[in-house]
């Protein structure tokens, strides 16, 4: 089968940073599905792994954690899918990635593809959908149905990116008032299009801007961009007994002391936790992907695909990695067809 990978961590402008090669088709066993990849999308984690981890052994390292495709074969322990099913999923960071014609993935982290979407539209969703859903409804424990007379507010820092683009939609579906940050006209327009009620600039004082639009404090803050940079602002803006969730690791130690007086909860979200540690709750990713597929087919959630490249090869993936590393992407970059 065709695949794209690398041997050494190299700058993306190096011709060896990503290479085309061929490898034998994998064989499913146990809970694994063999997927015929139809489309993939690129995420910041792809560039982070490429820049930090080299191949082990004689085969290039295959990365990529977002795909849609068709089930070709199933392992002997599979019960959720059968050959011919159309699926979408983000995969497992401890295993070979999705930059390949065929791919093995545990069925417990795979969802049924939304029937109303094309493969490329569906491929934009899995990793960001799992991240946003787990952050909002599991880590932050936000009710999916409003429990009070007034909609609680959430501040999403970095709303125009991949995770933010789906988090805004899920938060609106759950009945929250959404305040998103954005700093350019095109990103501001995008988050408003997705349903953000208010937009503020993350390059300016967040607490001051919140007060200017009528929010002294916020019960929920989802940080999708530079936890270090925004820590002081989040600590000031969060409401007493509120919750802050971040998906971005820190470059330096952060003091939790500013959160103590207000009894604030801080939590991390890492969507690969369940598969990496084989937790008893792995099946929840299958369930949440199915739930979101239903919401998509009902018109409640839309794809976040913004740029489509073809075919899936080293040349096109280098373009996608370059865009991700430049930090200027809106929504998701998707590739289709080997």
TrEMBL record:
Stated name of the protein: Zinc-type alcohol dehydrogenase-like protein
UniProt-listed InterPro entries: ADH-like_N (IPR013154), ADH_Zn_typ-1 (IPR014182), ER (IPR020843), GroES-like_sf (IPR011032), NAD(P)-bd_dom_sf (IPR036291), Zinc-ADH_QOR/CCCR (IPR051603)
Listed Pfam families: ADH_N (PF08240), ADH_zinc_N_2 (PF13602)
Presence of the UniProt keyword Oxidoreductase in the record: yes
Domain of life: Bacteria
Homology family: Belongs to the zinc-containing alcohol dehydrogenase family. Quinone oxidoreductase subfamily.
Cleaved signal peptide residues: none
Gene3D superfamilies, sorted: Medium-chain alcohol dehydrogenases, catalytic domain, NAD(P)-binding Rossmann-like Domain
Start and end residues of each Enoyl reductase (ER) domain: 5-335
Gene Ontology MF terms: oxidoreductase activity; zinc ion binding
């Amino acid at each position: 089968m065709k695949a794209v990978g690398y041997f050494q961590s190299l700058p993306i402008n190096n011709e060896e940073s990503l290479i085309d090669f061929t490898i034998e088709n994998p064989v499913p066993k146990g809970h694994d599905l063999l997927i015929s990849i139809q489309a993939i999308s690129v995420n910041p984690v792809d560039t982070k792994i490429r820049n930090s981890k080299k191949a082990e052994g004689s085969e290039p390292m295959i990365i990529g954690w977002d795909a849609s495709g068709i089930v070709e074969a199933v392992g002997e322990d599979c019960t959720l899918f059968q050959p011919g099913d159309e699926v979408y999923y983000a995969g497992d960071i401890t295993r070979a990635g999705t930059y390949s014609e065929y791919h093995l993935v545990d069925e417990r982290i795979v969802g049924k593809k939304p029937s109303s979407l094309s493969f490329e539209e569906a491929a934009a969703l899995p990793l960001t959908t799992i991240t946003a859903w787990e952050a909002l409804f599991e880590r932050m424990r936000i009710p999916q149905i409003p429990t009070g007379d007034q909609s609680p507010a959430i501040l999403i820092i970095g709303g125009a990116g991949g995770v933010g683009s789906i988090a805004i939609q899920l938060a609106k579906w759950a009945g929250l008032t959404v305040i998103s940050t954005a700093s350019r006209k095109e990103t501001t327009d995008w988050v408003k299009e997705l349903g953000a009620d208010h937009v503020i600039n993350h390059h300016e004082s967040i607490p001051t801007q919140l007060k200017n639009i009528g929010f002294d404090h916020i019960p929920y803050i989802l940080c999708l961009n530079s936890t270090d940079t925004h820590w002081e602002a989040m600590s000031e803006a969060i409401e007493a007994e509120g919750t802050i969730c971040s998906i971005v690791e820190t470059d330096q130690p952060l003091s939790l002391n500013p959160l103590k007086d207000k009894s604030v909860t801080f939590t991390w979200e890492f969507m690969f936790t369940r598969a990496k540690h084989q937790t008893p709750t792995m099946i929840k990713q299958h369930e949440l992907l199915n739930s979101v597929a239903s919401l998509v087919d009902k018109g409640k959630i839309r794809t976040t695909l913004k740029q489509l490249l073809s075919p899936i090869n080293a040349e096109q993936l280098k373009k996608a990695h370059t865009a991700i590393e430049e930090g200027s992407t809106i929504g998701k970059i998707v590739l289709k067809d080997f």
